Amino acid sequence: MRLWLRGLVLQALRSTRGVCGSCGQPPPLPVPQKIVATWEAINLGRQPVPEYFNFARDVLDVWTQLEKAGHRPPNPAFWWVDGLGAEVKWSFEELGVQSRKAANVLGGVCGLQPGDRMMLVLPRLPEWWLVSVACMRTGAVMIPGVSQLTEKDLKYRLQASRAKSIITSDSLAPRIDAISADCPSLQTKLLVSDSSRPGWMNFRELFR
């Protein structure tokens, strides 16, 4: 998988950042078959692995460009369905737009810089995947956690990682409040909820 992603990056870099000498315009985007051929060449050691890689920019955004150019069918990038049948469906372009908005929240209100740690403890909500991609865009290090974490678990993870921010739900917010005084590095607390809570910022309101 890692080589596949890197192969995609290499082809994307050559196609989207190069310039055609005869016309002065960027060359056309690669068709999926060429992308596959590229990662196979890297896998066999016939092409170098790129030094830098960002999944959000070099994969998701490239798929967006491929769809716009008609090189691949417009398939959903994200499709979430809850137990009641409610759906959230994003194309690659929509996921790009939404994740950039989330990245602005992380880099703006939260003040996260590349390398800063951020803890994400959510049930299976669309915001989980959205924040994951946003962290890739900002360079923040995401520390995932499950909703079953106790106060002791949360305290240990926040202290050990020196996380500057946490994003969680209504059910876990009281546990965070109970131990946040013992976590001096924790600067911002974001709540994924339709309601408010003292000492917390509402992620959904900031995201709008």
UniProtKB/TrEMBL annotation:
Signal peptide region: 1-18
EC number(s) stated in the UniProt entry for this protein: 6.2.1.2
Keywords recorded for this protein, A-Z: ATP-binding, Fatty acid metabolism, Ligase, Lipid metabolism, Nucleotide-binding, Signal
Pfam families in the cross-refs: AMP-binding
Enzyme class: ligase
Catalytic activity: a medium-chain fatty acid + ATP + CoA = a medium-chain fatty acyl-CoA + AMP + diphosphate
Keyword Nucleotide-binding set for record: yes
Statement: the UniProt record of this protein carries the keyword Signal: yes
Family: Belongs to the ATP-dependent AMP-binding enzyme family.
Name of the protein described by the UniProt record: medium-chain acyl-CoA ligase
Organism: Equus caballus
Gene behind this protein: ACSM5
